Amino acid sequence: MPELPEVEVTRRGIAPHVAGTRIARIEVRNASLRWPVPDGLDALLRGETLIGVTRRGKYLLLEYAPGWLLVHLGMTGTLRVMPEPGALPVAGVHDHIDLVFERCALRYRDPRRFGAVLFHPRSAGDVLLHPLLASLGVEPLTDDFDGHWLYAGTRGRTVAIKQALLAGSIVVGVGNIYASESLFRAGIHPRMPAGKLSRPRAEKLARAVKDVLAAAIEKGGSTLRDFVGSDGKSGYFQQEYFVYDRAGQPCRVCGTPIRQIVQGQRSTFFCPHCQK
DNA sequence: AAGGTAACCTGACTGC
DNA sequence: TGCAGTCAGGTTACCT
Fold first, then answer.
1. Is the whole-model pTM more than 0.90?
2. Per the CB 3.0–4.6 Å rule, which of A25, A94, A173, A210 could disulfide with A111?
3. Does any strand B atom come closer than 7 Å to the Cβ of A158?
4. Is A3 a catalytic residue?
5. Cβ of residue A261 near strand C, that is under 7 Å?
6. Does residue A75 lie within 7 Å of nucleic acid chain C, judged by its CB?
7. What is the pLDDT of residues A238-270, one digit of tens each?
């Protein structure tokens, strides 16, 4: 589920419930995620106040005095607010971790276990120095990301623009859905070599990425309450896509059938008439 | 250095 | 009804 918009919506959904409150206990039922959940989290953080919840790319960063919890939702992860910390519903097989606070709990569920929960001690320096964060591209919704940055970042690259967007080393947060959607909005063929993007098209694509992600966050924002409770889910991805998952269906702009191709083992969707 | 790909894991869906 | 095969929102590690 989680591309950047859902991670951001999750952040906004959980932060008001837990920021500034103390953690009562941490229960790790299954430490076998993408990397092992570190031992001793409970001993390390019990009684500590959660200073704040921020986001870098698709990572949620929970700051405590001793350090940061890094949470990645992978493909199928969710982090949801459970309102009754003393009366938590029985954990399902994929409910791997509970962060129990004074007035609520956060439950981490991830059926496919591609996600991660890691710890970065303050003694190792700022969390942005963590190896998984240090070489990430810029945030798409800040002024750091614009046409100039995208243009400069793609010079000399022969890889397809779709894959360059997805890779996360130029800009973070553009997942498989929004890579296709952004390229459609910008009228750019997903197979175009990144280095051949003209300056104006780089401008247009950067704008499209920002607009698409911001719109998705808005959609998710309207379902924030769904993140509270045992069976909430975001509805942002139920929006009507222009191209994603629409192979064979008519382009919403010109009626040409949407095509599906594979790039780097991932599906790409585009309109062969609108995107050149 | 950049580019390609195998791998991690479960569940939903399709077709026989 | 069951079983095999395919595909899925991410990203790293390891080849060439």
1. yes
2. A94
3. yes
4. yes
5. no
6. yes
7. 568 999 999 999 999 999 999 999 999 999 999
A58 an active-site residue?
yes
Taking only Cα atoms into account, the Rg of chain A, rounded to an integer number of angstroms, comes to 20
Distance CA A62, CA A108 (A): 13
